[in-house]
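Methods — Computational structure assignment.
A single polypeptide chain was analysed. Its primary sequence is given first, followed by the predicted tertiary structure written as structure tokens.
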Amino acid sequence: MTVPGSTTAIPLDPLTTALVLPDGTVHSRGTLLSGQDGEQELLSEAWLFPREQATNLQRPVRVSIGRPSGSVETYLLSADGTTAAVEAHPPAAVLDPPDPRWDDGMSQHSAMLETARAAERAGDWSAAQVAAERLAVHVHNDLGDQHPHTVLARELQGHFAVRARDWASAARLHTSAAAGRNRLLAPTEATARTLKNAVYAWMQAPVDKDLTETGYTLAHLLVRVAPGSPGPIAAVLSRLGSTGRP
């Protein structure tokens, strides 16, 4: 059943995401659901939380499920437990006009930023990483987590990590920056670019327990923010399915 387009009036949040890996295991809310149960039984377990949300809120909530093919199934779950497939959820919100702090050059942190840029011009990527980390820590302590400059500083760290071929750090930092851009309603083009960088770095990194967790975070973010990107979703899910369990 398809719900008419009027469902876009329902808020995007809460939106619960679940991932189906190639072997049929399901990841939802930080937990890998596996065992003797089949895929449908595992998905039923993943549905318990949004059903509880819909009941408690007494209004519909949204669910997105990423599949190994890279496709994303989207559903609307009503307070009475009725589940309806919908063509798509509305896109993530952005500010219009954009917050000018995304493009103001972080002038109040210009000295620390210039130290990082000087190392960049010299091609000294290790020094650039160190300078960018100092900048990011300073900006976070100064402005907190809910500020565009904090996200930009983290993104700069990720940029230098890519140049240093420190793929693990780059994947973690770009994933965090993409989540921050989405959370702070940044322009979609920039969020998409940061997500692309996160996927590229994560696919290059040797995956251990921590990077596996980063991969799950990244996959859920892709399903939520970029459901029309089957290639990256499929690539991340495929690698998660072949790298063992965290």
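Note: Residues 94 and 144 are 20 Å apart (CA to CA).
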